[in-house]
Each structure stands twice: as C-alpha cells, then as structure tokens.
Amino acid sequence: xxxKEVNKMQWSRFNLMxxxxxxxxxxxxFASNSFLQLEExxxxxxxxxxxxxxxDLSSHPNLYLQLRLGGFLVEDKADEDFVRILxxxxxxxxxxxxxxxxxxxxxxxxxxxxxxxxEKNRTPPVMSEExxxxxxxxxxxxxxxxKINVTWYGGEPLLEFDKLSRLSxxxxxxxxxxxAQLITNGYLLTPEVISYLEELNISHLQITIDGIKETHNKxxxxxxxxxxxxxxxxxxxxxxxxxxxxxxxxxxNVDKRNSHExxxxxxxxxxLYPEEFDKKITVYPGFVxxxxxxxxxxxxxxxxxxxxxxxxxxxYKTNPLKTFPHRALDGCTMTRKNAYVVGPKGELYKCWRNxxxxxxxxxxxxxxxxxxxSLVAEGMIGGSYLEDNACExxxxxxxxxxxxxxxxxxxxxxxxxxxxxxxxxxxxEQLLEVxxxxxxx
Length: 441
What we know:
The protein is an alpha/beta fold. It is built from 15 helices and 14 strands. Among the domains are: 75 residues; 79 residues, no CATH class.
C-alpha cells in the first residue's frame, strides 16, 4: 500500500535544504513550516528524489514518513493548490466584514520634534464632539459587525486624553467587542492616565526609546528643546508598578547611527523588570525609514535587518524578533476592507503615513457617498503582493506579508525600487540555524 502512495509523491518546491555551520544537514519547508535535522545518509536519497520524482521509497520507510508528514514530499499539484488556498485565506481575512479596525488621530499635534518624523503637518484642529459623534455613527452603519479594534494615534494622543476617553466610552457603549491600543511617546503617561487604561480597554501600549539616554535625547526631544528620556523611563516604571493588565511594547527605533545601542536598551529593561520582561513588557527594534525616498544610507534595508538580527543572536544571545518564520494573515490598513485611518476632521485614509495629505483622503465619516474609490482600489489591489507574480514565485511567499503596501504603490507610481522584502530573505539559513541552536542547546 505504501508503495502505491509513494509513487504519487514529489519534492515540494517550498523545500530549503542546507548544511549548518556545525555541518548538520537541515531541511525546512515554507508551506508547512516544518523543520528537520537529517542524517548524512539521507542526502543521497533526497538528491535521487529531486532527480527522479515519484521514486519508490519503500526501502526507507522512516525517512519517507518524516518527509511526508512534514510536507516535504507532496502529491502532484499540491504546491499549486497550497498557493491558491493561501491566497484565498488572505483575501478572506482582508475582506472580512465582522471586524472594524480604526486608527484614530484625535489631533496631529505633538509635543516632540523628532528629527526623522515623517509626519510634517502638525497643525490643529482637534477632533470636535460633533466629529466624534459622526465617527460613532459611521461605526453603526457597518453591518455584521462584531468587534472594533482601535489604535489611538497622532500626533501625540495623550495631549487630548479627555477627548480620547470620551470617544472611547461612546464606542464601548455600542456593546460590541472592543479592544484598543495606544501609540504614545510616553512623556504624558502619568500615574493618573495609567489608572484609566483598564477602564478604557487599552490592552497594548507602544512607547519608543531611541537608545541610551544621551542618544535618545538627541533624537527624541521636546518642541523648543529639552530631553525626554528620564521622564519616559519614570513613567514606564509607574506603568510596571500599576495594576494594568495589558502589555507594553517598547520600540527602539534603529538605524545605522544607533543600532549598536539596541542591545544595551534590551539588557537594561530586562534587568530593571525581570519579572515583567516578555510578559508585561517586550523590547523590539523599529527600523526607521522615511517612506518616500528610495534609498537612504542611514536606514536599513531587508538585508541589513536580517544581518542585524543574526549579529544580535551571535553576540548577545538576544532575539527581539522572530528568527523562525511564521505565517501572518493580519494584512494592513491599506489592504483590508474594514480598516481606516481617521483624521481629526473625520477625514478617512488608508495608510497611517497619509495622515494630513489632502490628496490621499478617501472619504469622510459622515458620508458613504463621493468616496475616492480609485484610491481605495489602488491600496487594496495595487498595494497587495497577492497580485505580484514575482512574489508568488518567491520561496518565501507563504511566510511573507509582502512588505509595506504603501511602498509597493509608490514603486508603481514612480518606477522606484523601494525594498519591501522580509528580513528572512537574504538570511533565512542563518536565522533558521539560530533557531536550531537555541532548540538544541
């Protein structure tokens, strides 16, 4: 019986086989996410399988079972079927109508003047109560809605915490599942604000640190001048000591000017909060880019990012981002049907970076008519890597989210070559080996 089934099998196109630095033969499959250590004598058999599809493996039942169960040997056309099913699932996620994701900027104003900020338009107004009510009405008009996900954004959202709180309660009163995250520079995250986080269903916070104190204060300073590091760190301490049950994601903005300091911040936070680390607080690199330029010598491309993670693992035994691939279905505001960025006037966008750009407005919250559907379509279709034949042929297609849709659109608009690839692409073997060593140490 096994012989008949074996004859239908062939080597998957999603397989990656390589020899580690320790001379161990490793095999990974991007479709199944399976990872195997192989015996040396398996190499000759596998090379025969590659040369002679449908080879009979009856004399190697254990190897056959490993390869079959791991998805390394597949039936004819199984890889093509997998790609179609994967695209179907991602499209279904993008077009789901039971969930609404809103990134809300009550104001574009910020109390910081960071030198690399891509948001140049920091002028008022602040969202009015009338606009806030119109936004609640906009939510109500969505049929089949079960859940609202809100990201409080800006500007600096805590400059308008009272308005944020009132709008939160209006959305919570809709009796839908409601969850929120807050992106803040942390300067105004006082104990009083912290005391309201649980009540406002804010389950995640993002705060940014740009390195050690001296570096941070040179890059993330107050308008008019003045350092911000010590106050942010004090507020983080208040947060860790509080009864808040959420999770803080501490982002360390990284480029080639300060990348050597990431490990110092990581180890500092780990030492300060040993009980909360990786539970109530995580530290990760946020790779800085300006979005519009095709190349900036200070910023990391995908190859730089991969090497950065390999170096962190080798030198500091630290893995702030995944070194083992995973499949993502989350998508992006630009490519998801029920996802919007809401500006302070109630104007709607499909990308965080477009906030304040009048030519990128797709509509307004108080009307479902006269929307710029060509912009919507450009984002959802033109920005989707599912429409890119080169991406579909890529070995990493199943574990890659296609990179930033905004960058893809800009490349199409000006024939640019902005990098959108995963950090795994140029360093997949090294990162898999990092994972292998950690699992076997």
